[in-house]
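[step 3/7] inverse_fold.run input=structure_tokens len=106
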């Protein structure tokens, strides 16, 4: 079970055996441009923090439904250390996409 007592800006304490961010980054680098929310004026590097955050949330909120955690995920974005200059309203669909990929749930 993941440690729920960690600073959310530090990636929620996901360990390598729970989540392989290199694999996720490779997957999304190959598939991001196909996603319906992607806009031509933003690069993969803009969306990557959202994918990473969604992947990390899949570990932190393991076993929970998106509808039950969406508000917490959105609130946590403002403190997320890896968000760069990406704004929630622009990456929220990427966050959800990564969550869905790893949890196979909605």
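[step 3/7] decode complete -> sequence:
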């Amino acid at each position: 079970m993941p440690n729920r007592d960690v600073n959310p800006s530090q990636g929620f304490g996901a360990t390598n055996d729970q989540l392989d961010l290199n694999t996720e980054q490779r997957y999304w680098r190959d598939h991001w441009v196909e996603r319906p929310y992607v806009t031509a004026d933003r690069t993969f590097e803009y969306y990557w923090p959202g994918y990473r955050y969604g992947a990390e949330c899949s570990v932190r909120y393991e076993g929970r439904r998106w509808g039950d955690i969406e508000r917490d995920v959105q609130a946590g974005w403002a403190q997320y250390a890896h968000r760069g200059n990406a704004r929630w309203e622009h990456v929220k669909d990427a966050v959800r996409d990564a969550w869905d990929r790893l949890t196979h749930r909605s």
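[step 4/7] annotate
The chain has one domain: 8-103.
Helices lie at 21-31, 44-60, 66-77, 88-103.
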